[in-house]
């Protein structure tokens, strides 16, 4: 569908979500949510050091947790998901991708509400104190006075490459030092920080590949190396082999799923925006392709959560009709 029309219908869906929630009983489901960097406040966000991404501050994160506590959700750890969830409750799992040191800022909130969270680690970024490529592209692009559209277009191009190709592209353009983090805003955990963090009872650690590899850009050998090596490196750092994975950028294929099974990974998460319903939850293939929502810090938290919880979206209906009509033409 045309982007402007899709956007308008989505905006209407967000507007009517509170009404839908009060009129139509919410279906019990297991919802997972994705966070990346956690910024102290808007001032840190606007420094240009790191890609603002979803622009989530600690305050936005606290609002998100409070909302779900007030609306009867049970927060679960990956271990509880793997032991099996009851179809009679509404569940939620909090996840953070990449391995940013700034994720430490989530801990006081998690402790305050006694909420577990799953942190997916890009292993070599931690091992080598390497900046994440999207932060480098953003920071250096801004310095070079590129427009936001040009930075976005460059990021979209980089998403189609392997980690080695991305590093070559960035170092050729901005020099060999560009992959060094600037400070606590953009750096990953150090291995010893990650070790200490992982010992916290509310913290669970998962695989996010060795080099934040968009796995569908790799051949079978590359996929195996990215997943299996990350299992080893993470085990070295935290003392156990992850049973969970978040596919970078949500991309996976049959080879990826096969390698995950071989590696003893039981729970895999994408970035497909949808709820997870039982009984599909109990099919092992579905557990490796779980859906996940994303929260944006520049939009109202309640509106977004209402929208995700609502089981009626005009957008889906219009899309269905549009697809049928298109097939007939
Ligand atoms: Zn990621």
TrEMBL record:
PROSITE patterns noted in UniProt: NODB
Ranges of residues in domain NodB homology: 90-329
Enzyme Commission code(s) on record: 3.-.-.-
Gene Ontology MF annotations: hydrolase activity
Main location: secreted
Subcellular locations according to the entry: Secreted
InterPro entries per the UniProt record, alphabetical: Glyco_hydro/deAcase_b/a-brl, NODB_dom, Polysacch_Deacetylase
Protein name: Polysaccharide deacetylase family protein
